[in-house]
Amino acid sequence: MKNFRIYKLLVFLIILVISSCGSDDEVIYVSPSGTQLVQASFTYSISATDPNVILLNNTTQGSGEFKSEWNFGTGDELVLDQPGLEELRLNGAGSYTIKLYVTNAAGFTEASETVRVDEDGVCPSNICGGIDPSSLKGAAVGFSVGTIVRDNRLTGMHDEVIRRDFNNITSEYQMKMDVMYPSQGTYDFGPADAIVDYGVANGIDVHGHALIWHNSTPDWVENFAGTDAEFEDMIRDYIRTVLERYKGKVRSWDVVNEAIADGSNELRFDDSVFRRRMGADYIEKCFQMARDVDPDVLLFYNDYNMASDSGKRAAMFAIADRLKALNLIDGIGAQLHISYNGPARSEIQAVVDGTVSRNLLMHFAELDIRTNPEENSSVTALSSERALLQKDKYKELAEIYTDIPTANKFAFTVWGLKDNESWLLDFWGVPDFPLLFDSNFDPKPAYQGVIEGFQ
Questions:
Q1: Which uninterrupted H or E stretch holds 339?
Q2: Strand-strand pairing, 16-19 and 25-29
Q3: Enzyme catalytic residues
């Protein structure tokens, strides 16, 4: 045993390559000798006759001589693999990391799986008691799971999937100013009413998105002919009208969306009529208007690139601090339009940590994970490799969210139901597969990644 560990250390010091493929954690040590390594690989299943027993199947394949040894997660002892399935009993509740080492003349490789056990035995798919692993909302504990909707996507399979998997909905477009208030003095609440009524009828929370956004401003507001004071009164009347209409029906609102300019990390000016007409404190004014109308509704500031851009993150928290000091904000919406290969977990965690430290609610908002960030226009389908990498990233996000203190949890919202309806297709103009369901409403590996991450 001692000599084996020394050998591992010597090979490790030569070259270490970390691969994300295969089991939960797969570490490959490469020798410069030129001899091909044999990659360790295994699967496990739960015994049909004993819920505390797992059956380990060594699936390693390779040429030449090699040796396979198990660490069963209960100590440091290595056990030589024998032909056939290995039976392993795990009696106590907790997590066990099972490792398989495969050694040949070139060095060794390692594969591992974490197995969770509760009072009922080994947890299927690592999802332990007290939750329903058959749906996203059932797997989430202490927070909502959301998706976006349109008024013409509330029936048929859309309805079936929404009611099965989600308990929070956000209007993709139809609760923004240009839709609800298209001309001065004339409101159109038809689409918004349909969405809110659907939520109420089905016991699904509604998150309002978004009262003030520079990209959804009607032309008549951009060209408002009155004074700045009259402009501000008009905005106050608009916010009052909307919040009074949905008071008690809409749980929360994004009051201001995407106020920070890219690059400078200052408040938008040239492309924000609200900043130009209402002043540098327009965000505080809008939040105060909303708070005055409905003291009970939850108020959020929502923005993007807060994980990948530390400067923008700092600017967002500066806004949050000003609002917090005035008791005007309840939470932060972190848009997570990201890719399978970034941003890093630590960057996402930084958004969470800053939010929690301010005692605000954390909304993982507008979540989608691109599988084609290279913008390859020739891609025609989601490859198995990218599907698994996407699953890993969704799982990572779900793990991060699950670890948030209960008092700071709000919702985990995926920005779309199925791949062919994603806004990213038009935005980037190339094929992509960023959501949890494929075009046929079938769950993808990413779906299972979220459920696993919630545990």
A1: strand 331-339
A2: antiparallel
A3: 258, 366
